[in-house]
User: Which sequence fits this backbone?
């Protein structure tokens, strides 16, 4: 059995090197994410990786190198276009050539970078965060909070020794209007991987005593623009968007924008600008109070002047006022007496005429009443005379009585031998009953 012919490692590497020396692997554009980027002797070393969008798992990787001869130009052009320095975590589109070294293996030698691709990726990521917050209905919560009239209790989130924090405090406490503010620093890392977690922790600490604060100020002074990538974080943006008191964000420079600028209540360009805005709110309230004081003083002055004029008038009128009042009262009394006399005279005349008329009417009425009574009595007398027993007897009737004087009304009341007395119009006669016919 013959032994297989073996290649030396150098021979194998030469074969691989020849295989990779293809024209289609030279000066090609590749999209990837930079990882573990570092500088050494002017050269920039990194890993170019490609991740699964859903799981984040690395699907491919290759070493990348930018030689010092090209790095100064490439990094300067990239920073000018994007405002950021090349750093790990960035999505980049790079042009380069596949290289194989027998000792260091395969690498990708980068000759150029397209900054517009990175700018687009950063903006795309920012839009994704904002769209997610909008979908969750929280993107505008902090932006719509109302400010207290004078926000003077201020919770500050910043690095403790940052120049921006010092500028903010100096500006705030040395204002020309001598306004007094109460501040407290809640420390946080303002660059690097710990930025978002430490700022969220500071917000949580403020929230435990939320009633003690009017607003939150998140500030960071100057520095590398690439450091602002840490602020384009979903969890940090969500915390600020839902924070229960207004948040001011002042990080980076005026041209720098992060996702926090879209969800915070207010965005200012520098820490000093944040202090100036707070001072302006206090000065506006102070001016309002001054205006109220001026109006109050003017009102009091006007009222006092009016009262003084009234007092002077009363003092001048006091010497003549009693006599004038007595004269006016006397005149009123005289007019009242004249009016009363006229009224009494008129009333008396009317009542006298009314009494005369009543007396005449009573006289006529009484005469008529007496005449009517006389006529009535006469007619009743004639009637009584016509109905009297004597008149009845004169018409031929008689009255029969027993001897004891009782009147006999029926024949059945008489019996044989009864003595009766008969009364006529001109006299009486006595009789004895012999018989009766009933």
Assistant:
């Amino acid at each position: 059995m013959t032994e297989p012919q073996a290649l030396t490692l150098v021979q194998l590497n030469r074969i691989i090197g020849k295989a990779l020396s293809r024209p289609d692997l030279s000066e090609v554009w590749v999209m990837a994410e930079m990882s573990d980027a570092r500088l050494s002797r002017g050269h920039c070393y990194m890993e170019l990786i490609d991740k699964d969008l859903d799981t984040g798992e690395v699907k491919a990787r290759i070493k990348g190198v930018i030689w010092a001869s090209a790095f100064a130009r490439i990094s300067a052009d990239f920073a000018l276009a994007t405002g950021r320095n090349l750093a790990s975590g960035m999505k980049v589109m790079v042009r380069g050539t596949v290289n194989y070294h027998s000792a260091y293996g395969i690498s990708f030698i980068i000759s150029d970078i397209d900054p517009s691709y990175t700018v687009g990726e950063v903006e795309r990521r920012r839009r994704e965060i904002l769209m997610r917050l909008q979908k969750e209905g929280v993107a505008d919560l902090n932006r719509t909070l109302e400010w207290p009239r004078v926000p003077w209790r201020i919770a500050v989130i910043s690095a403790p020794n940052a120049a921006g924090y010092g500028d903010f405090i100096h500006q705030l406490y040395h204002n020309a209007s001598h306004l007094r503010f109460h501040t407290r620093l809640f420390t946080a890392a303002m660059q690097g991987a710990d930025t978002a977690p430490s700022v969220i922790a500071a917000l949580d600490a403020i929230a435990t005593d939320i009633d003690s604060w009017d607003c939150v100020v998140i500030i960071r002074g100057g520095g590398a623009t690439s450091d602002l990538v840490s602020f384009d974080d979903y969890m940090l943006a969500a915390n600020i968007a839902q924070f229960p008191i207004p948040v001011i964000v002042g990080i980076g420079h005026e041209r720098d924008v992060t996702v926090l600028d879209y969800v915070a209540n207010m965005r200012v360009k520098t820490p000093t600008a944040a202090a100036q805005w707070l001072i302006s709110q206090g000065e506006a309230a102070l001016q309002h109070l001054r205006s109220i004081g001026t109006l109050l003083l003017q009102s009091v002055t006007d009222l006092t002047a009016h009262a003084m004029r009234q007092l002077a008038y009363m003092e001048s009128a006091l010497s003549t006022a009693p006599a004038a009042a007595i004269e006016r009262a006397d005149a009123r009394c005289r007019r009242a007496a004249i009016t009363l006399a006229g009224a009494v005279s008129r009333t008396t005349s009317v009542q006298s005429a009314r009494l005369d008329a009543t007396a005449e009417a009573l006289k006529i009425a009484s005469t008529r009443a007496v005449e009517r009574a006389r006529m009535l009595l006469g007619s009743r007398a004639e009637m009584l005379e016509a109905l009297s027993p004597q008149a009845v007897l004169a018409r031929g009737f008689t009255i029969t009585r027993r001897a004891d004087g009782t009147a006999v009304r029926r024949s059945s009341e008489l019996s044989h031998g009864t003595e009766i007395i008969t009364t006529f119009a001109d006299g009486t006669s006595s009789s004895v009953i012999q018989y009766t016919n009933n």
Observations:
- DSSP finds ten helices and 13 strands in the chain.
- The mean pLDDT is 85.
- The two ends are 198 Å apart (CA to CA).
